[in-house]
Amino acid sequence: MYDDPDGDRSGEAGPTVVPHDRVWVRYGLMAAGGLAVALGVLGAFLPLLPTTPFLLLALACFARSSERFHSWLYSHPRFGPPLQDWERYGVISRRAKLLAVAVMAASFGFVLYRSEDWILPAAVAVVLLAVAAFLLSRPGSAAEARRRRGNLC
């Protein structure tokens, strides 16, 4: 949909926004999107709070509630490029992958430390391993994604 081999992002507002039919749902989605943006911005400064997942959530909320906010976030100079890379190529940066896997490992260690039996740690391990496998399977850059696509054709 956004296959751009030159990586030029100028003047692009992103996908079409289709507002929800009900006004109260639109306002709820705008509020949820605003909260997600606030958490994402906080995540830019706090090392253990992720930024991109919250911004992806905000983008999804704004896609159903506000074209203006969606366009602003999608074309934002700081937060827009990772969102555009995710949408175009499914990219998760190497830094984000490393941080996510490290936090998951620390969380699992905490669960192991606090758990009295094996059931909870086993369930948590299955979920975290599945999430880590997904994260690590994603390309780390747009160039890597294009290379992978080229090898598939």
Structure in words:
With 153 residues, the chain is mainly α. Helices cover 68% and strands 0% of the residues. It is built from 7 helices and no strands. The chain has helices at 23-45, 52-63, 67-74, 80-89, 94-114, 119-137, 142-152. Helix 1 packs antiparallel against helix 2 and helix 5 (94-114) runs antiparallel to helix 6 (119-137). The longest helix is centred in the first third of the chain and has 23 residues, at 23-45. The model is unreliable at 1-11 (pLDDT under 50).
Q: What portion of residues is helical?
A: 55-70%
- SS field, number of helical segments: 7
Q: Quote the average pLDDT.
A: 85
| Number of distinct beta strands | 0
Overall form = globular
Low-confidence stretches: 1-11
Order of helices and strands: HHHHHHH
**Structural class category:** mainly alpha
The biggest sheet amounts to: none
End-to-end gap:
17 Å
Content of β-strand:
under 5%
What Rg, in angstroms, do the CA atoms define? 18 Å
Topology:
Blueprint lengths: L22 H23 L6 H12 L3 H8 L5 H10 L4 H21 L4 H19 L4 H11 L1
Helix pairs in contact: 1-2, 2-3, 5-6
